[in-house]
Description:
Layout: E1 50-51, E2 55-59, E3 67-73, E4 80-85, E5 91-108, E6 113-130, E7 136-142, E8 148-158, E9 210-212, H1 222-229, E10 234-241, E11 247-249, H2 262-272, E12 277-283, H3 289-292, H4 296-310, E13 314-319, H5 328-344, E14 350-356, H6 364-375, E15 382-386, H7 398-417, H8 421-427, E16 428-433, E17 435-436, E18 443-444, H9 446-459, E19 463-467, H10 497-502
Parallel strand pairs: 9-10, 9-19, 10-12, 12-13, 13-14, 14-15, 15-16, 16-19
Antiparallel strand pairs: 1-4, 2-3, 3-8, 4-7, 5-6, 5-7, 5-8, 10-11, 17-18
Amino acid sequence: MRRPGRVWLAAAAATVVVAGLGWAAMPSASAATNLVTNPGFETGTLTGWTCDASDSVVTGHAHAGTYALQGAAGNDTAQCTQTINVVANTAYTLSAAVQGAYVFLGVSGAASTQTWTTSTTYTTLTLTFTTGTSTSLTIYIHGWYGQGTYYADDLTLTGPGGTPSPSQTKTTSPSPTPSASPSKSPSPSPSPTPTGTPPPPPNGSFRNPIYFMPLENNPQNISDAITASGDKNYNLAFVLDSGGCTPAWGGDANHKVSADSTVTGVVSAIRAKGDDAAVSFGGYNGSELGAGCGSASGLASAYQSVITRYNLSRIDLDYEGDDLDANMSVRFGAIKILQNNAASAGRQLHVSLTIPMTTVGFPDTGKDEIRQAIAAGVSLDIINIMAFDYGLTNSSDQATSVELVAEAAKNQLKTLYGWDDATAWAHLGLQIMNGHTDQPSELFTQATFQTLLAYAQSKHVGWYSYWSLNRDRACDPSVPHNWADGACSSVSQSPYDFSKIVAQYAG
Length: 507
């Protein structure tokens, strides 16, 4: 029998690959001189710039002249940087013409500041700053994970030029076709956390998905739930193997995905309200498809049949129990096939990976899953931490316990991927559980959810979610219930109290 409270997702992140460039020497100049090498990309190349593998120079999209930078921000931020010699304690102005969703212009080194915009037509971003004691700075331009193509042109840095150091006298052109290395760390060029409104996570607007079992645990009418709670994002659980590598809800041969109409209606109702649904593969009980499909190609076909049935752009991988860190070459091999196929069709498949937590963050098995995803070249938008069922170490403060676990997981992601704090938080999904969990020491009340909502907002986590919608109602006192019942929370509440709190999360 399925554990009533447990659904886990995972997300993952992108590996940034940087072309191997040297730094161009910047000549001394007057304050009116543009210090940027190849500022409008009119060489037709990325000469003078160090860029991610997804960047290129194109025609037909120039702000002025013939050429412009095109950044395909999908699995990376499509960043380009250039290091420039400057004069210490001096005022400079940086500007660029940009077009696209979440385009960032910034500087680091002698100063650290940035600005950004979202625009369907070219607009000018401008920064004025004063250098510190350093005589070298790095300018950068980039998009944001999963936000599509942006364009940039006419970058200018005005102010007095500095004297190049001996190590900055060589200029090389980027490799024409940088090769991606799955295990390579992200670009070391800095991307400071933006001030003001933060950028979206890699998975776009899917910021507060609630787990929902559409065929088990007395499911609510999804349209009523959306209307009452205001939350429009849902992870539907679980698709398993009903035998012979055949996807079915709950692994039940009577509810094969190929013959389903009920969940199709749920997905349509969610989209009619204005947002989206993902499907979660796995769960604690039953047989996960990866255990029975035999090969990466066979598993990819099984997953694809579900993606096609519900026209999905998002899936969740919930490998639990004996599936945790098992048969990963088949499982991540299948996901790599699916992501490559989606990219070839001009689409993107968003993938989250859910991993159970310990009191000190990821278990070793969870960390190994992430390493194997990186090695396989799989892009995980969200690495979702199941921040419950690990056993409360401080029974007086559930929220603080979750915060400590989340902080540990964030630091582990930094080590595994080479990210900074902001990037690690942006890829971390924080999933909790309403009411009683499977651990009697744990209890999540409405107040706990509110406290953790504020925490999630302060860290700008990739998403804030919980298990499960089916439990977001009080238990009937006249009917016997389990400690952590699958169809109610076992705490005093009004219908959809917990969903209303999660619905407030916007990053």
